[in-house]
């Protein structure tokens, strides 16, 4: 379970009940496809925004009960429409995802943590909310806990990918916090790891960890296979944070990620979950 963009939610996992695999795949196809439009290939920003507008037109068609106007996207949106209607999924959550993807095309810096949280609200939190609607567990309390987990997963992805994002011209570290710790954009460009950098990234790691732990009760609350899936997501995210620390916060020369040797440990921790979060 890599903590990597839209890989950070279950995709037809064997742990999911069979009845949920089809809608989860439909949500994933939408999110993965739109994310790739915003982030992959050699298209210009203007071209990316036009293609994302085609996704918006597809959502508008679902709302009208019509076919997506772009023939290339029509099969994916037909499948999505079936599952949105079958499970009463809120369309606004899909619009939120598209807003975040469009923001990624044009915005490469964040002034403060509040700006970053607003991005996470639209880029990550809708996924958890959609899954809770599928599970029939979308209470206000559960949604709040899910938001903490999903935002934490998004932040963890940012901190493990500082070097990758830097190469794309993006800095997700809040500018005011960079200034407070004495880290400049030029230092990120150079990939220089010093005491100031370690202090800044440790601050981000500890905040993401606290947020994940604040949302973790949801993983104990949900039953059966769904609870197992969520426990592995939570524990996998926490494991990535341990990897960042073990690397001495040098995410420029090595990207902390989960490997084969992590899985037995994560499975054991999932079984003994109450004692490990």
Summarize the SSE layout with pairings.
Blueprint: H1 18-39, H2 45-64, H3 74-87, H4 91-106, H5 113-123, H6 125-135, H7 140-160, H8 162-167, H9 175-181, H10 185-190, H11 195-215, H12 217-221, H13 224-246, H14 262-271
Helix pairs in contact: 1-2, 1-3, 1-4, 1-6, 2-4, 4-5, 4-6, 5-7, 6-7, 7-11, 7-13, 11-13, 13-14
Structure, described:
It is globular and about 55 Å long. The chain folds into two domains: 13-106, no CATH class; 108-277, Farnesyl Diphosphate Synthase (Orthogonal Bundle). The two termini are 18 Å apart. 38% of the residues are buried. It has helices at residues 18-39, 45-64, 74-87, 91-106, 113-123, 125-135, 140-160, 162-167, 175-181, 185-190, 195-215, 217-221, 224-246, 262-271. It contains 14 helices and no strands.
């Amino acid at each position: 379970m890599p903590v990597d963009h839209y890989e950070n939610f279950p995709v037809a996992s064997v742990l999911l009940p069979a009845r949920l695999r089809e809608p989860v795949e439909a949500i994933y196809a939408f999110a993965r496809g739109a994310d790739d439009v915003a982030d992959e290939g050699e298209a210009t920003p203007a071209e990316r925004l036009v293609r994302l507008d085609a996704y918006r037109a597809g959502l508008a068609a679902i709302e009208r009960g019509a076919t997506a106007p772009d023939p290339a996207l029509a099969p994916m949106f037909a499948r999505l429409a079936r599952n949105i209607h079958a499970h009463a999924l809120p369309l606004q959550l899909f619009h939120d995802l598209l807003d975040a993807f469009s923001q990624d095309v044009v915005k490469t810096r964040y002034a403060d943590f509040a700006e970053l949280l607003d991005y996470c609200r639209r880029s990550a939190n809708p996924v958890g909310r959609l899954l809770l609607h599928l599970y029939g567990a979308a209470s206000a309390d559960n949604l709040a806990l899910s938001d903490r987990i999903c935002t934490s997963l998004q932040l963890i992805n940012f901190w493990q990918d500082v070097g990758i994002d830097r190469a794309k011209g993006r800095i997700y570290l809040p500018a005011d916090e960079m200034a407070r710790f004495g880290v400049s954009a030029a230092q990120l460009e150079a990939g220089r790891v010093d005491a100031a950098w370690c202090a800044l990234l440790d601050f981000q790691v500890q905040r993401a960890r606290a947020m994940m732990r604040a949302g973790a009760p949801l993983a104990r609350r949900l039953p059966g296979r769904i609870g197992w899936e969520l426990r592995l997501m939570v524990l996998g995210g926490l494991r990535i944070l341990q990897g960042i620390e073990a690397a001495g916060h040098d995410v420029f020369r090595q990207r902390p990620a989960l490997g084969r040797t992590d899985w037995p440990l994560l499975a054991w921790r999932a079984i003994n979950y109450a004692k490990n979060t």
